[in-house]
C-alpha cells in the first residue's frame, strides 16, 4: 500500500536528480518509491548514524581519543571552590 510523503521542492529536485543519475549510470529505470525504499532500508541498517545525525552538531570523538585526553590530565592540588576565587 503506497502512501504519499511530503517534501520540499529542493528535496524533490534532488530525488529526481538521483533518479536520473541512476538511470544514466545503470540503464535501469527506477521509481522514486524504489529509491526511497532503498534509502530507508539502508538507513535502518545503520540506525546509530541516522540517529546521531539528528543530535546537536558537535565533533565526534572516538573512545581511544577520549581516553587519551583524560589520561593526560593531572591533579594539581586541592579543588578550587567559588569561595577561594572570591577571597582574592
TrEMBL record:
Domain of life: Archaea
Region (Disordered): 62-88
Name used for this protein in its record: Ribbon-helix-helix protein, copG family
